[in-house]
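User: quick one
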Amino acid sequence: MANVLIYAIVYFVLMVVTAVEILVIGFPIPHDVVVASLLGLAALKAVMIAMYFQHLRYEPRPLSGPAILGLVAVFLFLGLSLWSIIGIR
Amino acid sequence: MVGVAEHEVPPAWSVKRWLTTTNHKDIGILYIVTSLFFLVVAGLLALIFRIQLFAPNLNFLSANSFNQMVSIHGLMMILWFLSPFAFGLANYVVPLQIGARDLAFPRLNALSYWLYAFSGVALVVSFFQQSTIDFGWTLYAPINTAQFSPYVGVNTGGLALLLLVTSVTISTVNFLVTIIYLRAPGMKLRNMPMFSWSILITVAMMLFAFPPLLAAILMLVADRALNTIFFVAPEGGAILWDHLFWFFGHPEVYIVLFPAIGAICDVIPTFTRRPLYGRTWIIGAMIAAAVISFTVWGHHMFNTGINPDVRKAFTVTTIAVSLPFDVMVFAFIYTFAKGRIKLNTPFLITLEAIFLFIIGGVTGVFLASVALDYALRGTYWVVAHFHYVMAGGAAIGLISGLFYWFPKMTGRMFNEKLGRAFFIVSFAGFNLLYFSMFIVWEMPRRVVTYLPETGWGFWNTMATVGGFIFGLSFLILFWDLLRSALYGTPAGPNPWNGTTLEWAIPSPPPFQNYEGQPVVTEEGFKFVSMNGAPHVEHESHMSPWPFLIGLATLAFVIGFTTNFYFFLAASVFGLVTLLGLVRERFVVHDPKLGERWPFLNIEKVKLGFWTFLASEVVLFGTVISCYVYLRFNSSAWPAPGTIFNIEHGAVNTFILLSSSFTAVLALLASKVGNKPALIGGLAGTLALGAAFLVNKFMEWRELFDHGVTFSSSLPGTTFFFTTGLHGAHVTAGLIVLVFLIYRAFKGWYLKHNHETIEYFGLYWHFVDIVWVFLFPLFYMI
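Assistant: Done. Structure below.
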């Protein structure tokens, strides 16, 4: 189980990543790269929160299973529903 | 020892017993009786509209009445009869089969039941509020919006569905944890009876199928009550509703069907007197069908003009989903061929269910073809196919299970002659009713009448006659079961020579199921003495709060749709009942020994929380997917920062991340027994959560001042709905926090009692994670 130092480090990193997110949108880089960067950074923050604040790093791996399967279901829904409207708009 | 617990609860004839019980067998009987009541209601509706269709040009019903009856018949049969009936059997049988004394969370089980029962009452009430849902059980958009269906009854019907989904979610978590966590020593998954397997697969599907329905209904309620435009705007509208509904709706077919297949799988080996052939393959086939069922929903949308390539993909998956059922049917037939068959009622009805399901399955394969679907969509072919699967396969299959376990439940045998009469009459009535529909396959469904020139009159007459014969079979069924429950001959523990654990105990089972701890060995079952074990005497079996919460939710729904002050009073009543539930001391002891693979060394409540969070992942994932879909489907979308102020989003992100930090500090303080730090951590989380909401409120007010409202545009609709749903989760967390702080002041949650703080944190951090994605999606992209 994590101690206060690890929690503090994670918290600090989360704040820094959030600041980076805000800075990224001002960079002179293509919009698609901005979108990918922001989603990547958000995913990084989510994984850090799940791993450390929700302690999944210290739990048996199967405990993550239901949530991961839920994510798979969401991506299935999103992917196929987006595919259904490609080229017909 | 078992007798002590039984005497702690009121006797079976006491009303108090049935309003307060948390025992799984009582709840199972409540589910079965209530679901059969809804079967009767929905069946009577069907008979009434069959009279309307008896002959051409009849005016027995108005078009509006016909539409309401057809719609409520479908909704009630699928959601208030079939699944709850299956879960009535599951409530009674699954703990007995796996060697558990009760479900993992008995009070939540009672809460699931009462939410279900009162949601059904709300649906019935909706009939008396101008007009209830009259646009089919599929609730298609945009006819489901206030513009086309402005009736109060439709709102009540929608809220009834919300209540039902809440009940289902609680039940899903409960059964998953029960089957995973409470299996007796030796009851490994590979040994588990097929009915319990089917329920495990069913609830796993429910965990991921019902949140999209919840998301769809929440959006619909928002469209109707707040004037958001999810299903009004052409970018969303009918196609978005179709995606949401059928992503739930097609897995729902298997959710309804699998428990029946599970019951059939337990009946067959008992009455063929040989093990089920290909048992592992059947389990594998069910899992395969469950997975594939989440990829087939687009075949309900072939006619909507969706991308041709995705239609091909859905054709392939739809054909693929039929293959696992071939495996099952062949396994059944091979077992019959090699067995020594006893033609008792449960087996006869199992044969009936399999026969009808085969016809339903074969006629469904046609619908996988895009070309044929153009001809068959919206016709009586679909109605007939659907009923052969749902009423023939699922309902009749479950009734075979009811006959099979009836002696276990009541301790008495049913009348075999009446059972066979049910088999013959139901088989004749069913086929006359639904096969006639195949013959008039060109006739459009959901149409109040038809012309004589169509030539559909004769077969509609036959269908109506068949409907009444089918209805008669249920009178025989009810008469047999009611009479036998009172006067039937004693059954003994194992009248069928069944081999699963429930047949190794008396009929009906003792209140706490087993005299001792059941253990599964290679030779069979044994019961290890538990004399002196403390948990037998001191467990709780009654609580008034689930019933009262259910009552409060019914009042809440009726108040929401009729009277604001009644709504406020119901809300206060609801909060009081929730407080009563959490303050009540309700003791449940978990077994020290048991099979828990693959979730070894994980506490029961934590497993329940993570399962619940998985459903939340799908709920928010679906809502966010709808946002992405609408954006993708819009020709233009405002640039980042032009509508939604990034500063508000950034400040709220920093606030919520900080609140997660204070929440983990509170957990650390709880573990080391530091009361001031615990209270400080919780109070900090409360303050930051409140600050988040204040900032959100200010942001919303600014947006309203600038003309950005729920209905102004899709960016407004999606933003207010998604952040509003998230804000509601934050608010719920704050209410819990106030309670936790109050208890922390009184010395709770220190050292070894830190779990509650940890479980709250799991929820709070999840809410934080959701915001982590909402921030870039709504403010910066």
